[in-house]
Design goal:
- It catalyses: chorismate = 4-hydroxybenzoate + pyruvate.
- There is one protein chain.
- The protein is an alpha+beta fold.
- The chain has a single domain, classed as Chorismate lyase.
- Helix content is 28%, strand content 32%.
- The chain is built from 7 helices and 8 strands.
- Strands 1, 2, 3, 4, 5, 6, 7 and 8 form an 8-stranded antiparallel β-sheet that branches.
- Strand 3 and strand 4 form a beta hairpin.
- The longest helix is centred in the last third of the chain and has 10 residues.
- The radius of gyration is 16 Å and the shape is globular.
């Protein structure tokens, strides 16, 4: 397993109302923006956006992922981990998962995405419904070694289309905050 730990510390995924008074409005805007993150990163990078796959394959899903997808603990699923890059720098670590049985009958071939953005696919298909965004301080052991920082904010949401559920988590890396700060000067 690539960047896996034992179930890591219990993760409290929180909805907007639980964080609204604790975070600055700028961070909240990034965490709870319901638009396409791919499009937002493309704008911020002035079209110097790319996706770098890190891992794609079948593996046992984490307990928090199984719970969010309504799967039995330890269920196997498709896992896709990528960096979303601006100007070649990793800005976001993204982990997308779906249960095996749901994917096999759901008609979505995640294995062929390669360096294309899953977000664009989800936002271009009007049949997908996005469930509420949740955010947390993403556990450092769940990040790739070269991006492992403590205390990074991450978010996740479940996308649903005719019984096909995908859970997409995105972790905002320090280089993103720096690029965003420079863009607002």
């Amino acid at each position: 397993m690539p960047y896996e730990s034992p179930q890591a510390a219990a993760v409290a995924w929180l909805a907007y109302p639980r964080l609204a008074n604790d975070l600055d409005s700028h961070t909240l805007d990034w965490l709870f923006d319901e638009g396409s993150l791919t499009r937002r990163l493309t704008r911020l990078s002035h079209d110097h956006f790319s996706v770098t796959p890190l891992f794609e394959g079948w593996q046992a899903l984490r307990d928090d992922e199984c719970t969010a997808l309504g799967l039995a603990p330890g269920a196997e699923g498709w896992v896709r981990e990528v960096y979303l890059r601006g100007h070649g720098q990793p800005w976001v670590f993204a982990r997308s998962v779906a249960g095996r049985s749901v994917l096999q009958r759901g008609g979505l071939d995640l294995e062929t995405l390669g360096s294309r953005s899953l977000g664009e696919l989800l936002f271009c298909d009007q049949a997908f419904i996005r469930h509420p965004i949740e955010a947390c301080r993403y556990p450092q052991p769940w990040l790739p070694a070269d991006a492992a920082h403590a205390g990074l904010w991450g978010r996740r949401s479940r996308f649903e289309r005719a019984g096909l559920d995908l859970l997409v988590a995105e972790v905002f890396l320090p280089a993103l905050w720096q690029a965003d700060k420079e863009d607002h000067r």
